[in-house]
Design goal:
By secondary structure, this protein is α/β, with parallel strands linked by helices. The chain is 35% helix and 25% strand. It has a four-stranded mixed beta sheet. Strand 2, helix 1 and strand 3 form a beta-alpha-beta unit. 23% of the residues are buried.
């Protein structure tokens, strides 16, 4: 299940962004794109697959085409992991902040 929480220009996604939520996510994000400015907070995304990544790529492209770029921020570890796996960390043009991991001493 995916939840959308709007606070000013920031839209926070919480939950899974997979093939099961991709259609709903795309429809909702299409509506939100018309309420620019829009910033996407990905800190609450717990799981993402290639369908979810396609939605994010689509949103980037649509925002740019409409002249209202959509920055993504606060990428969750799940999002960073998939972007890294797919070698897409630089494709979105957003700054990724990777939290330090604790290493056993």
């Amino acid at each position: 299940m995916l939840t959308f929480i709007r606070s000013g220009p920031v839209l926070k996604l919480e939950g899974e962004l997979t093939i099961f939520e991709a259609g709903e996510a795309r429809a909702r994000l299409r509506e939100e794109l018309h309420q620019a400015p829009l910033e996407l907070d990905l800190s609450g995304v717990t799981e993402v697959d290639t369908a979810g990544i396609q939605v994010l790529l689509w949103l980037k492209r649509e925002g740019k085409a409409a002249g209202t770029p959509v920055p993504f921020g606060n990428h969750s570890p799940a999002v960073v992991e998939v972007l890294d796996l797919l070698h897409l960390t630089g494709a979105f043009g957003d700054t990724l902040v990777i939290a330090p991991t604790s290493h056993p001493s």
